[in-house]
Amino acid sequence: MSKHRPLAVAMLIVSIFTPVSQAQDQIRNAPQAGGRTYSVNYKDMVLATCIATAYKNDPGAAKDAGSSVSALRDWTSFDLDQATRPIQDLVTDYLSRDYHNPVVESEVKGVRFDLLKCLDLYHSEALEAQIKRWGYTPDRSYRQDNPAPDE
User: Fold this and answer.
1) Which of 38, 90, 119, 139 is the most exposed place for a label (fewest CB within 10 A)?
2) Is 1 in contact with 145 (CB distance < 8 Å)?
3) What 8-state DSSP symbol labels residue 112?
4) Contact (CB, 8 A) for 50 and 118
5) Looking at 15-24, 40-49, 97-106, which range is the least confident one?
6) Of 75, 78, 120, the residue nearest 95 (C-alpha)
């Protein structure tokens, strides 16, 4: 976690010398994941992994989702070495499910419902079990564990 300390110091220095309106824009335009709990960030990371996997043939969507996964890893407190394979297994399980809707399929050929599968994964008991198994302090947040120097 100490690798992020220089970033916090740099952000503090910038905020001291930045007018209030610019500071508010920086906050509005910065990722909010650092203030969410590790468990929420883990769930978001798994959802982004699922989306990146589901849309791997759409370079823009896969790149965006994959970049989000990387960013969210910075705001989690989980044993990601141990959890990486179970995350991928869970994603594979959900994306391999055979969801179908005859009404939609008659109008839209080749519909896969991959986003719906990812959302179901996001809300699943299986994902909650991973949070309990791999999380160190799931109810805390990155900002709680890494306060800015002035806090």
Assistant:
1) 139
2) yes
3) -
4) yes
5) 15-24
6) 120
The CATH classification number of 36-143 equals 1.20.120.1620
Separation in Å, CA 85 to CA 25, 111, 141: 38, 28, 24
Per-residue confidence (pLDDT) for residue 2, from 0 to 100: 43
pTM: 0.73
Instruction: Output the six-digit token pair for 104.
Output: 């939609």
Six-digit token pair at 2? 């100490």
25 against 98, higher pLDDT: 98
CA distances, 49 to each of 4, 96, 127, 142 (Å): 23, 15, 13, 20
Which tens digits make up the pLDDT trace of 79-128? 888 999 999 999 999 999 988 877 776 777 777 889 999 999 999 999 99
**What distance in Å separates the CA atoms of residue 90 and residue 98, rounded to the nearest whole number?**
15
Give every CB contact of residue 96 below 8 A, 6+ residues apart in sequence.
none
User: What is the gyration radius of the CA atoms in the chain, in angstroms?
Assistant: 19
Look at residue 26 in the predicted model and tell me its pLDDT: 57
Start and end residues for every CATH 1.20.120.1620 domain found in the chain: 36-143
- Residue 144 CA to residue 58 CA, distance in Å, equals 37
